[in-house]
Amino acid sequence: MPAASRASQSRRRRVILVASHAPSLPLFRGDLIRAIAGHGHEVLCLAPDYDSTTEAEVQRLGAATGHYRLERTGLSPRADLASLRALTAAITDWRADVVCGYTPKPAVYASLAAHRAGVARIVPMITGLGYAFNSGGSLKARAVRQIALMLYARAFARCHGVIFHNADDAALLQQAGALPPAVPGFVVGGSGVDLERFHALPFPPPSEGIVFLMIARLVRYKGVVEFCKAARALKARSARARFILAGPPETGPAGVPLDIVQGYADAVDYVGPQTDVHGLLARCHVYVLPSHGEGLPRTVLEAMAVGRPVITTTARGCRDTVVDGVNGRLVPVGDSEALSEAMRTMLMRPDLLPGMAAASRRMVTERFDVRLVTGQMLAALGLND
């Protein structure tokens, strides 16, 4: 066998990505899967809820697919132990060299399972700390945070690195003792954004007013209620403002009931779940996400890529996307009055929008191009050789 072929084979890895929701694999990890397979590695994508369409999409990216059991929400020790056992068996059977679980439960349980299976490199990905860290100081929230920190500490002690989407999440877990000093944290630019697909778009004609768009699941920690309140307050002062809210309803404890959203129909045009994000962004002048905390908000990056000013909050992850007054505005978390005033500034000064749009596109090109971010992830996983 030629030396070059032997060297190529020696670098070939068997890589497992573990998700909590199968559609997130082609949607958020598609470029990473394609890149890992393109480097000659074998990829297995495990998820609990494949349908035939999603399975085919993942396989077209160059990966094999597999199922495991997972309760995405809740804290059932029996169910989580079953997930741990299923993942341990799958990882062992596939003889994985590298394992990466992403979102909270897979990050913990895939890492513990990989350690049990003797995997050579374990690098989970924290795409955001989630509801437990964004839901205030109630007794239940504090209890859930403590359980999450305990699980993170146990899992990360057995890892070779942890990928984060923002530096604040890494710092929080380090300060809480959940990320050991000896385990490196790799901060990457979120999931990145495809700058060819999300190319710069002209603003729609302003004749029908300035359009403010928010895309999010209908959950409180995304700032849905603040957006609706701010829209109503501004609509009462100016008929030139228009507000569009898109996203699927949520039935969990953090969900905003649909009747509450529909109660703001005098100000907000709720268009329900939408798959054409590009088309929605083409209709707006300003993108708004008043979230209480994110890993790095994908919709904001896409809005920046098409050249839209952004209004978001000073929360973790969100503040990484906006330089206040340059490509948008930052407002305090949970402050609908400040949000309304930030939107009013852009409504009254449309001359500011082109400069902010150009700054958004420039920033996303320099920091969040999916090719750059994918390279960062490959390096963290030890797959860029």
Quick description:
The protein has 385 residues and is α/β, with parallel strands linked by helices. Helix content is 42%, strand content 15%.
Q: How would you describe this protein?
A:
The relative contact order is 0.11. The model is unreliable at 1-10 (pLDDT under 50). The chain is 42% helix and 15% strand. The radius of gyration is 21 Å and the shape is globular. It has 385 residues and is α/β, with parallel strands linked by helices.
What key attributes describe this structure?
single chain; 385 residues; alpha/beta; five-stranded parallel β-sheet; 15 helices; 14 strands; globular; disordered N terminus
Instruction: Please outline the major beta sheet.
Output: 6 strands, parallel
Span between N and C termini?
21 Å
Q: Report the uncertain regions.
A: 1-10
Main sheet: which strands, in order across? 11-10-9-12-13-14
* Residue fraction in strands: 5-15%
> Taking all residues together, what is the mean pLDDT?
93
Structural class of the helices, strands and pairings?
A: alpha/beta
* Helical content class: 40-55%
> What is the number of helical segments per DSSP (H or I, 4+ residues)?
15
Overall form: globular
Number of strands: 14
User: What is the succession of H and E elements?
Assistant: HEHHEHEHEHEEHEHEEHEHEHEHEEHHH
